[in-house]
């Protein structure tokens, strides 16, 4: 792959031919063409969180939080490679017709590696969960998949939002996230460091908020001292959209747009998503920036374009055609991801459901039963192959059990019709149908219109954070009413975050499972496939158990520091089979363990390793330090070898220094070594004392 030094040399040679005004114009996200130099227009803004997004037809994989529930970095790398391939196919097709608009370039502003520290945060479903180690491993795998290993970058990935960014959405444009040195180095920065040092991520996006007083997109501490000097980052930095404008309109750290542009570029922000860099020449004329500042940023941006092969007509990826987008093979990977991501949280024995009895009546209810939005999440593409939960269940029961459908409620509104005299105007139908059914599959939850990003200049919708962890009241009423009929209920929740859902004979967390969600759900409910997803975040009983949303201290947050009793713990998920662990051992940075499938069904297991270092600076509870997904046939055993994190036997002290530890205990099992997991599974992890 073209290295940074060669790319920068080529970029410097080209940029030297530009006028100052031309260089300044290239710092906009919607950079204009420079026809005299043969440089086409380029829009830096593209998205690929879980599939090529906002650019027409593409394969839609499970939302990022769902992919995290797979606990499988190799699978995520494969998915990222598909996204890169489809991204190139679309870029080639659009560029060949002169279309270089937004969402059609090769610089993808993904992944989101912020830590999902509080369940109220609306954008948490864009992340890989609450754990810095899991986030690091998945983020590195995703970036490597997007960028590839060819002569050029296949796509340019972006680590966002740097740094310490996880709500509240409503005040993100003026909020100052205060984080102590320990939390910075132990929780908020490790994933970004891993993506820079291990994956050579090509770009980093600054966050909207301030961190410890400095606006992230103009932070000397974050962008120069840590990112460039300490970590050796060689790519380019992009602002979040209209974040630089916030310097003078919301953060009030500058007085004018030229001052904001100067603060951002001097502290290492190369390209501005927004319009503040339109004032760059004013900043120059006022003596706030030098031509050297503008030239340096411009070279960084053209180095990326050279590394992408965008200025080489013989680039190896130029022949990827549009027929290589949205293929059967990619759909099969999306289905496999949905199967592995869905997480079984409760099961009294009702699952799997026997759907072979033609006399059986299966009722499907709920506002997410036949919803395309419940499959998508946000920052999504548009699939040509959506299978809703209802469609998947109906197809699986064709020629077998009878499937009937009653919505029961709207997503959050009390009425289906504004003309109804009473609220819950679809409840009676659902209850009547439940009285006739043998089993009810209640498809509840949220979608990205209810949890997501605060509506700002760059977005065409409004959503945001949650106030509590309850299902919307309209859904809760219909679920309670159906349960009271006495008919067994399987509660399926489409959501990207923690909700307190215990009602039903079984509880399935479907996340936002992508285009094949309905097919995957049916295969799992009817026992054709086995559940194997694991929670990448802690599920709490209510928000009253947590610190204030604006408190960024990790005390009493996430599984590593939570002081209460979780509803469902991080790393938890049930199966249809039974796994037995034996002979755990540690040597040379690796854990080995024998895993036996003692059940009657072939299945996959997520083997997890946690460490508790013997130090006052260690987290309150054991922390994840290794994991591996393995397939084990019924009645057979496999020997599993897991590489542990290089940071396993270290702790971070209050000054943010990472120190080695001599004594530690490792825990090996299919779950976290906590009391709730032991209570829910009846099992305990194996221990290795070192």
Offer a quick outline of the entry.
The chain is of the alpha/beta class and 690 residues long.
Which features does this protein show?
690 residues; alpha/beta; TIM Barrel; Rossmann fold; Immunoglobulin-like; 3 domains; 23 strands
The percentage helix is 25-40%
The number of distinct helices, counting runs of at least 4 residues, comes to 20
Reported CATH architecture of the largest domain: Alpha-Beta Barrel
CATH fold field value of the largest domain: TIM Barrel
Our measurement of the CA-to-CA distance between the termini, rounded to an integer number of angstroms, reads 42 Å
Shape: globular
> Strand arrangement, largest sheet?
9-14-13-12-10-11
Oligomer: single chain
CATH top level of the largest domain?
Alpha Beta
| CATH homologous superfamily classification of the largest domain | Glycoside hydrolase, family 3, N-terminal domain
Structural class: alpha/beta
What's the β-strand tally? 23
Explain what this protein looks like in three dimensions:
- This protein is α/β, with parallel strands linked by helices.
- It folds into three domains: 4-324, TIM Barrel; 331-529, 3-Layer(aba) Sandwich (Rossmann fold); 579-689, Immunoglobulins (Immunoglobulin-like).
- The protein is built from 20 helices and 23 strands.
- The strands form seven sheets. It has a six-stranded mixed beta sheet, sandwiched between helices. The protein has a four-stranded antiparallel beta sheet with strand order 18-17-22-23, with no helix packed on it.
- Strand 15 (579-587) and strand 16 (590-597) form a beta hairpin.
- The protein is globular, with a radius of gyration of 25 Å.
- The mean pLDDT is 97.
